[in-house]
Amino acid sequence: MSTRPAPGPRASDVRPAPSPAVDPLAVALHQRLAGVLAGLTFPAPRWQVVTEAEWYGCDMVTRSMLDRLPDRTYVSLPDLVAVLAGVLNSRPAASPPAVAQRPPRLPSPVRAAVPSSGAPVARPVARPAPGLRSPAA
């Protein structure tokens, strides 16, 4: 008696992996904001997003939605749409992704008002411009 290997799954039996759920609100927001924010370069802080929309001439509905954006820097349009969809769906906004920033500027060296010897330094006295009377005179 010969044994045949069990047949593998047929093509009609194989189902594709479920795709992640697409939020219809996010799709609508992306379509609405893509044209309004076409001139914006990312990363952009909230104030630049709102200003770009105003320069475009967005309607009051779009403007009121953008007013609800949290104050942070957005790295891309999909990032902005995801946060805005979360805000409009009353979901907490995800923490912003790390944005590469320049290191803080070091303060410029300042001369000490007192030299290393400890003696105070004489500072020049402000004098009125020629032709002006001083208030004490």
Automatic annotation (TrEMBL):
User: Positions of the region Disordered?
Assistant: 1-20, 92-137
Q: What is this protein called?
A: Uncharacterized protein
Please provide an example of a Pfam family that matches this protein in its UniProt record.
Answer: DUF2795
Q: Where is the composition biased (Low complexity)?
A: 119-130
InterPro entries xrefs: DUF2795
Which superkingdom? Bacteria
